[in-house]
Design brief:
four-stranded parallel beta sheet; alpha/beta; FAD/NAD-binding_dom; 11 helices; five-stranded parallel beta sheet
């Protein structure tokens, strides 16, 4: 006899009328599906899921879906932030069946007990506990990835990133702040050049696209608003490999490097960043072994991604994985 059968039999021994109700309740009880994340994988999964057949609960620290390939365009005003985002509640409203959404971060997955522990990050003045847990029958882990800093000192404290919509909006404000600061009359020319030196670390698609977007933003818009400092701007792209966009065909890489050369974007390949401070970025030239530092006004870090800690802990735990779907 199965465990569920034992429960029904126990209910029958207590009350003859209780068994049909208990059986009926178990028979039609929906399986609980918990989805972690509102990115590409999470929203795509919900799109194809028959939500009327399951009790679906969605957890994410952001209450919107973002079209991340256009984040560099948001930083420079090519597109508006609202144009590349869609509120999650608008998405789930279009689905048949009820989906519960909770704006919170999953901090731990207890696979042994089929439970996730979550924490919301609202204003501390709000009333009530921010911690809660959810039980599941099926778990979809679609948390995405985080920026890979390679444990480089100073990156988290002194660099900008391009992973979230808020990152793009913050970066746009910081670029304009650099121009405003460089326009202060008490600064020397060297200090102005430093404030207007924009460094992009990482020669992949995100770094290259941002450098190109930033160049166009400066040449087409900002130089007209800040004509006094227009000749002091410099953009540097640092790449550890021998070429930028080295994951693509060599012709694409060569074309991009030639285009950057025409646009006076300084591309430094074969250089590995070893430290970032609030005023300088230190790198090691692989071919010569030399260590050099350059001043900067702003650094954008786009060197790739890594697994989030909660996912690392999840896969490292002792679990069967029989009822888990992990999405990239």
């Amino acid at each position: 006899m199965s465990i569920s059968g034992g429960i029904v039999a126990y209910a029958d021994s207590q009350s003859e009328t209780a068994a049909p109700a208990e059986l009926n309740q178990n028979e039609f009880k929906k399986k609980r599906v918990v989805v972690l994340g509102t990115g590409w994988a999470g929203t795509s999964f919900l799109k194809d899921l028959d939500v009327s057949s399951y009790d679906v609960q969605l957890v994410s620290p952001r209450n919107y879906f973002a079209f991340t390939p256009l984040l560099p365009s948001v930083t420079c005003g090519t597109v508006e932030a609202r144009s590349i985002s869609e509120p999650v509640r608008n998405i789930i409203k279009k689905r048949n069946g009820e989906i519960q959404f909770y704006e919170a971060e999953c901090v731990k997955i207890d696979a042994a007990n089929n439970k996730v522990f979550c924490k919301s990050h609202f204003d501390n003045n709000m009333i009530g506990s921010e911690d809660f847990s959810l039980e599941y029958d099926y778990l979809v882990v679609a948390l995405g990835a985080q920026v890979n800093t390679f444990n480089t000192p100073g990156v988290m404290e002194n660099c900008h990133f391009l992973k979230e919509l808020e990152d793009a909006q913050k970066l746009r404000r910081s670029v304009i702040d650099c121009f405003e600061k460089a326009s202060i009359p008490s600064l020397t020319e060297e200090e102005r050049r430093t404030n207007l030196h924009f460094v992009v670390v990482g020669g992949g698609p995100t770094g290259v696209e941002f450098a190109a977007e930033l160049h166009d933003f400066i040449k087409e818009d900002l130089v007209n608003i800040y004509p006094v400092v227009k000749d002091l701007v410099k953009i540097t792209l640092i790449q550890s490999g021998d070429h930028i966009l080295n994951m693509f065909d060599e012709r694409i890489s060569t074309f991009a490097e030639q285009k950057f050369q025409r646009d006076c974007i300084d591309v430094q390949t074969g250089c590995r960043v070893v430290c970032v401070s609030d005023k300088e970025i230190t790198m090691k030239v692989k071919s010569k072994g030399e260590v050099t530092s350059i001043p900067h006004g702003l650094v954008v870090w786009s060197t790739g991604i890594s697994t989030r800690p909660v996912v690392k802990d999840f896969h490292g735990a002792n679990w069967t994985g029989k009822q888990t779907c992990s999405c990239n």
